[in-house]
Design goal:
CATH superfamily of the largest domain: FAD/NAD(P)-binding domain
Distance between the termini: 18 Å
CATH class of the largest domain: Alpha Beta
Bound molecules: flavin-adenine dinucleotide
Shape: globular
Largest sheet: 8 strands, mixed
Radius of gyration: 21 Å
Number of domains: 2
Order of helices and strands: EHEEEEHEEHEEEHEEEEEHEEEEHEEEH
Number of strands: 22
Strand content: 25-35%
């Protein structure tokens, strides 16, 4: 079976791997401009929404599927896809340490609330670090690039923007290529998805982040307080990112840069140098739930979108479910 996948962000890449493992012939279409949300994603795979201390919907299922998925991809590519070490929450005082321990006593949180550690860097201000079990950080650009190279050799990768997509007599034609089934994994704004499936309830979220460096002791842990501070190696770090629902398509802003630096100074008293400043748009839905499925009239046309700020965690399971539902429909 020939499968078309429009978009090679986190969604399209996970879809492509599952299609490959199912034995399909994969045609991957992506502009190749590295302009999607996935290219600026910090890559955190984190079952807890740390800001609100709540679990991601179906956290356990996602973690199990994600573990198996990335291990299999890493094996296929003979590479390592993750930065070393888990994510840590910076606990500022004894009350927050107690709250962390109490959270670990709740049955649903227990698998994710890890041990406490002393602060590992002289510039960190607070009481302790709490380890988030089952969390990690995907090397997203490496994963996307290595996957694209794999599909270019083993399957078919088509560059350039997709500007023709037709469905007629049970056949899908995407950019002149006939396929038996096609999934739209466009992220925001989802132009082709909305053309065929109607308007999606997007509430796109702008995120800005800084790449920083400093002179002094290196920090080796990925740390969250009211934002993330993430070691990238080479004594460079990512700090961010912000959340904004306005000025969706504009470039990096001075206000976001200041917001990040002020927040950081609240718990990391180190002079930092800003090396880079980036911006991206999270494909978030109003209810924060992803959307996926097959078209009621064209059952071989599907889509996966709305991964919001959790694409690294949720794309493996959701893409697996999407293919499984196609197979189930074909068998019924
Ligand atoms: C600042 C920021 C930080 C983030 N941090 C994290 C994080 O730490 N962990 C996490 O899990 N998630 C994070 N996210 C969210 C994550 O980026 C998204 O969940 C994920 O990238 C969505 O993937 P996607 O494949 O649906 O969309 P995209 O990444 O947008 O991919 C869509 C792809 O489709 C292509 N495309 C679209 N239309 C066409 C067309 N007509 N022709 C050809 N190609 C087309 C685009 O070029 C793009 O490559 C972050 C997002 C932002 C903005």
């Amino acid at each position: 079976m020939r499968i078309g996948i429009l978009g090679q962000g986190l969604a399209g890449t996970a879809l492509a791997w599952h299609a490959h493992w199912a034995g399909y012939e994969v045609h991957l279409f992506d502009r190749g401009q590295q302009d999607g949300a996935s290219w600026v994603a910090a890559g955190l795979v984190n079952p807890i929404v740390l800001k609100r201390k709540r679990l991601v919907h179906e956290a356990h299922h996602h973690v199990i599927a994600m573990d198996a998925f990335y291990a299999r991809v890493a094996n296929e590519l003979s590479t390592s896809l993750f930065f070393p070490g888990p994510v840590h929450e910076l606990l500022p005082d004894t009350a927050s340490v107690r709250a962390w321990e109490d959270l670990g006593l709740e049955a649903s949180f227990a698998p994710f609330i890890g041990p406490l550690y002393d602060l590992p860097h002289p510039a960190l201000q607070g009481q302790a670090l709490g380890e988030v079990l089952q969390s990690r950080r995907l090397r997203v650009p490496h994963y996307l690039t290595a996957s694209r190279d794999f599909f270019a050799v083993q399957h078919h990768v088509h560059g350039g923007a997709v500007d023709t997509l037709t469905v007629a007599n049970g056949q899908i034609c995407i950019q002149g290529q006939l396929v038996d089934a096609c999934v739209l994994a466009e992220g925001y704004p989802g132009t082709w998805t909305e053309t065929f499936f109607g308007p999606l309830p997007f509430a796109p979220t702008r995120g800005e982040g800084l790449r920083i460096s400093w002179v002094g002791d290196a920090l080796h842990q990925a740390i969250h307080k009211n934002m993330f501070l993430l070691p990238d190696g080479d004594n460079h770090y990512q700090a961010g990112s912000t959340y904004a629902w306005d000025h969706i398509t504009s470039g990096p802003t001075q206000a976001a840069r200041e917001e990040i630096l002020v927040k950081l100074q609240g718990w990391f008293s180190q002079d930092v140098r800003v090396v880079d400043h980036w911006v991206g748009i999270r494909p978030t839905m109003q209810d924060r739930q992803p959307r996926w499925g097959w078209h009621p009239d064209y059952p071989q046309l599907g889509f996966l979108n709305g991964l919001g700020s959790r694409g690294a965690l949720t794309s493996p399971l959701l893409s697996q479910r999407l293919w499984a539902s196609l197979v189930a429909a074909a068998g019924s």
